[in-house]
Amino acid sequence: MAAVFGAYPLFDRAAAPVVLAVGDALDTSPDPAGSTGVAGGELPDGTATLDDDLPAITGLDPELREAVRQAAADAAADDIDFWITSGWRSPAFQEHLFDEAVRTKGLAEARRKVSTPEKSNHVSGKAVDIGPTEGDYWLIEHGTDYGLCQAYSNEIWHFELLTEPGGTCPPMLDGAAG
């Protein structure tokens, strides 16, 4: 199996171990604040598989993790690989993302694009961001088979378990502010 864009897919079609060097060593120890960086849900190389033993993955709701795993397997059968670009986040990491969006985009745009820790479903482990774009489009088309729905109209990569498998997704929200 070949890696796409230097990342590794969620599902290994060949069922053989794949080892990709992200760096010489991965430091998964908590940072001094204990709630940002890898310990707070940041992914060290920006992507992860569901088999990675990282807080961004292990902090996901088990039902969401299994739905994404099943979807990834079926997408792989269609020659589509996708991976997690963001999963569970600590409140401190979510606050950091929100503060950074305020700094770079202004408060109004930040509220539209990034939820506060109190409102983010990433903090509760009930949201996952998927990449690359072809994987997003596959999941938009087939996600309801697994109960996965695109939650926001302005984020094609953000999925949540919002219906029963085979059900109908609720209307998308305009953005993170609702």
From TrEMBL:
Residues 29-51 are annotated as: Disordered. Residues 60-141 form the D-alanyl-D-alanine carboxypeptidase-like core domain. Pfam families: VanY. SUPFAM superfamilies: Hedgehog/DD-peptidase (SSF55166). This is M15 family metallopeptidase. It comes from Promicromonospora umidemergens.
